[in-house]
Amino acid sequence: MVPYLFQGDRFYFRGKTDRGSDYYIFDLTTGRLVKEDWTRRYGDSKEVYHLGEGVKVRILDKQSGRSLVLERDGGTTKITDSLSLSKEPVSVSPAGNAFIYTRESGADLDLHLYSVEDGRDRVLRKGVNKTAATGADWVRWSPGGEYFLMARAVYETKDAKKVMTLAGNTGVWSPTGARLAYVAGSRKVKEESDGDRPSLLGDRLVVLDMESGKSVTYYRTEPDQWIAGPAVWDPEGRYLAFPTGKKVKGDLFFGKIHVTDGKMFHYVENEQNLMPTRLNHLTLSSGSDYLSYTVNGILKLIDLRSLESRVYDVYSQVENQVQSEADYIRFGPDGVWLAREHEILYVSERMEKKQIYQTDRWIHGFYLSEKRNKLLLREGTENGEVLKLVRLQQSREAPE
What we know:
Number of helices: 1
Protein name: WD40 repeat protein
Strand content: over 45%
Strand order of the largest sheet: 5-6-7-8-9
Organism: Melghirimyces profundicolus
Low-confidence stretches: 187-199, 394-400
Distance between the termini: 10 Å
Helix content: under 10%
Number of strands: 38
C-alpha cells in the first residue's frame, strides 16, 4: 500500500493485490472502498502532476527517452523529449499556474519554468549539477506560488527572474504568506553556487517578508551555540520551532528545541547532545498548543500552554514511516491522538492518556476524520497492509 493523499475524509492510495496494482479511494464517511483511477484528478507524483481542473502534466517513459507533455481540454502539448531521469524531475506551483522541470544537458541539467496560462517556457539556469535537483523539496514554493526558492536563490514566478540570494540557508516558507524563515550567520556567509547543498550552520533565525522586503531576526544564539537545523512553522504562520546546539570536535550536536514568535514568547526544551539527524518530525500544532518531535524513536509531546510534557515509544511507527509528514500523531483542538505499536492513545489537555483502540497487528499509521469521530488505520499483516475503520467504541474491517 502506497499512501498518496488524505483529503475531505477520503484516503487516496495505490494498493497491490494478487491481481496486480491499482488506485483506490477509501471514504471514511460511507466506509466504502472504491477502485478508481484518481490520478485523472489529483495526479500521481511518479508520473502525473495535477495543475487544475482538467489540466495536468504527464511523464512518458519510452525506449528513445523520457518526455513531458501538458494535457488540457482534450489536447496534448509536448514540453520536452529530454526530461531528466531524476526521481523528482517536475515541481508544480501550489497555484497550478506554473511548473519547473529538469532537462538533460550532457552530464548536467537545464532548469526550465513553464507558464501554464501563456505557454511560455523559460530557462532558469543552464549546466546545473544533477545533485541540485534531488529530493522532494529541491524547489520550495511560497504558498500562493508567487515566489520559489532553489538552494539560496529566490525567484519571482511571473517573470522567472532571480530577485535575490538569501544571506543564509535552509529557507522555509510560511504556510500563510510570502514570508521566508532562514538560518543566517553573523560572519560573512561563504559564497556558494545556488546548486550547492547548503550548510545548516548559522547563529541567527531570520524571517524575510518578500512583499515589504524587510527582515526581522527572530532569534540569535549564544556565542558558543549554533542553529542546528531548519525551522518549522506552525499552521497559522505565527510561531517557529528549531533546534540549537554546539560543535564538538568539528561535529554539530543539538541540545535544545526552541519555540518563538520573534516577540515575547520563547520556550526552550532541553535535550541530550545528539546528532541533528536523530531529530525527526519537529511539529507545531494549530494554535501552537503543542510541540512534538521524535529522537531515536521516542516521541516527546509538550503542551505549550501548561508546559507539561510526556514521552512515548514510537520506534516502530518511525521505522514504517512512508511520507514526510508524521502519520502516527494527529492534533485536535482539545487533545492529541497518537499511535504506538498495537494501540491508539488519546492525550487530553491535562496530558491524561486514554487507550481508545488496541489490536494484535502492528499499526503503521492512521488518519483522523474532520469531525474527529473516526480513525482510519493502516495495519500490518503477514500479507501486507490492511485498512481498518474505527468508530468511537466500535470498529469494522475495511475491504482488503
